[in-house]
Design a protein that fits this description.
Number of strands: 10
CATH architecture of the largest domain: Orthogonal Bundle
Strand order of the largest sheet: 3-4-9-6-5-10
Shape: elongated
Distance between the termini: 57 Å
Number of helices: 19
CATH topology of the largest domain: MetI-like fold
CATH class of the largest domain: Mainly Alpha
Helix content: 40-55%
Order of helices and strands: HHHHHHHHHHHHHHHHHEHEHEEEEEEEE
Structural class: alpha+beta
Number of domains: 3
CATH superfamily of the largest domain: MetI-like
Radius of gyration: 35 Å
Low-confidence stretches: 10-15
Mean pLDDT: 80
Largest sheet: 6 strands, antiparallel, barrel
Length: 495
């Protein structure tokens, strides 16, 4: 390229606006709103993090953090051989795993049970009893626990629990000084104290579920168990996953307030956790070993971060990423050829609820390569959509339509019921096959063929273009012009 041509192109290059600058100019007001929070985090959250350097130094208050000599990884080696640290680490992990296994599942179950309460006067009382402990500090709550579990002495008769045990003829138990029972006490009290917060989150998620889903499911004959399993639980799973990630974040960090207000020297073997141990070696009576406590906190927070990132990756695999449902058209009534053409042009899937396409529509769908998925229960359709979005369903029918017949005339016969004189207009009708009665595109009845005759003789099947007489088992409301759709269940392999 000549110098002249480069000189001619240079001004154009200079005139091209920087995309980043243009973007910031356009949305400057949004970033101004974020600025105060960002400054707060930088000053009070990220600013003090320079204290992490203590883990790698022999700290001297006289020299300060920056002036203290480097110690390398010596404090980390000291931590790994410290039996008290290993004991506290074990206790912390075990207590948090118990809280996760019992407390987390209990909170979900409790929220579902509260939601199922239908008595207006009882439900607010239950919610108040569940929520109230959460708003108490651990100092007050631990005091109440000690009052209930207090061991009798010469000065008093003991707590409520020991009074009941004595009244029943048993021996009082010193709960709070028993190492074998202390972890259980921590888990139970934590469940009682924190259940209110979790249930509020889950009940808020439940309240966001569209009531039309429950109404449609009830109309379709679903009971409360079905609605709970197929509507409520699947739709609160995102909230459950978020709460799970938050709880996993504290897997290596125990509740200092709870343990500090309940434990004593008798239960250190099972009750001493990392937060209380770090407090004792840094600010407690054991000294001011800031370097070792900082090293411990750094390792534990790093481990917690790894656990959270791992849990987040796992949850992402369960969720539908980058997928959006685009509803092109929704309408009441039967599926028409225009619906098929629209789906073909848009590369869409047709979902039908309590409707059935006629033979012409079905053939058109096959010609255009349009998939039609039909359901009679609303939550089944919703579940299939979710699975299809995740790529867990193969694009095939669960049912195979084998034929269709038009009712030309009806006869009422005593002890038999209504006999329909029909013309098979597509495929074939087979003896004892499953059938649907369709009236003006709407499914009126879904059942089984009672009898199939050709003239006066029983027939195993009647094919396209031939007349037949039939009855539908346990159904007599057959009218002229109705369509009889015969289908068979077919097991479909899932991808």
């Amino acid at each position: 390229m000549s110098e002249e041509s480069r000189a001619m192109r240079a001004p154009n290059a200079l005139r091209r606006p920087n995309k980043f600058i243009a973007y910031m100019r356009k949305y400057w007001f949004v970033y101004m709103l974020v600025l105060p929070g960002l400054v707060f985090m930088l000053v009070f959250d990220y600013g003090p993090m320079y204290g992490i350097l203590l883990a790698f130094k022999d700290y001297s208050p006289r020299l300060g953090v920056w002036g203290s000599p480097w110690a390398g990884l010596s404090h980390f080696r000291e931590m790994l051989v410290d039996p008290n640290f290993i004991r506290a680490f074990k206790n912390t992990v075990l207590i948090n795993l118990y809280n996760l296994a019992f407390g987390f599942t209990f909170n979900v179950f409790l929220a579902l049970m509260i939601n199922e309460l239908k008595i207006k006067k009882v439900k607010p009382v239950v919610q108040t009893c569940v929520y109230l402990p959460y708003f108490l500090s651990w100092v007050i709550f631990a005091g109440l626990v000690q009052v209930f579990l207090e061991y009798p002495s010469s000065a008093d008769i003991g707590g409520v629990v020991n009074q009941v045990i004595a009244a029943l003829g048993g021996q009082p138990v010193d709960f709070l000084k028993n190492p074998a029972m202390f972890r259980t006490i921590l888990v139970i009290t934590n469940i009682i104290k924190t259940a209110g917060y979790s249930t509020i989150v889950y009940l808020a998620a439940i309240s966001g579920i569209d009531p039309a889903l429950y109404e449609s499911a009830a109309i379709d004959g679903a009971n409360r168990k079905d609605m709970l399993l197929h509507i409520t639980i699947p739709r609160i799973l995102p909230s459950v996953m978020i709460m799970l990630i938050l709880q996993l974040a504290s897997l290596f960090i125990s509740n200092f307030d709870q343990v500090y207000n309940l434990y004593n020297n008798y239960v250190l073997s099972t009750g001493d956790v990392l937060s209380t141990y770090i407090y004792r070696i840094s600010l407690g009576g054991s000294g001011t070993n800031f370097e070792l406590s900082t090293a411990m906190n750094l390792v534990l927070n790093t481990m917690g971060l790894i656990v959270v990132l791992g849990a987040n990756k796992f949850v992402e695999k369960l969720d539908v990423q980058g997928v959006k449902v685009n509803v092109i058209r929704s309408t009441a009534g039967t599926i028409s050829e225009s619906d098929v053409m629209l789906a073909s042009a848009s590369k869409a899937v047709i979902y039908g609820f309590s409707v059935r396409p006629d033979a012409n529509v079905r053939k058109k769908a096959e010609e255009e390569g349009v998939e039609i998925r039909l359901h009679n229960i609303i939550y089944k359709a919703m579940e299939e959509m979710e699975l299809a979005m995740k790529g867990l369903l193969a694009p095939v029918y669960e049912e195979v339509v084998i034929g269709q017949a038009e009712v030309r005339q009806t006869f009422k016969v005593s002890k038999i019921g209504t006999i329909a004189g029909c013309m098979v207009t597509d495929g074939k009708l087979v003896k004892d096959c499953k059938v649907r009665l369709i009236r003006q595109g709407i499914v009126v009845y879904d059942g089984q063929l009672g009898s199939l005759k050709r003239f006066q003789n029983d027939a195993k099947e009647v094919t396209n273009g031939y007349e037949c007489g039939l009855t539908i088992m346990n159904f007599n409301d057959i009218k002229e012009g109705d369509l009889i759709e015969a289908y068979a269940d077919q097991e479909v392999p899932q991808n």
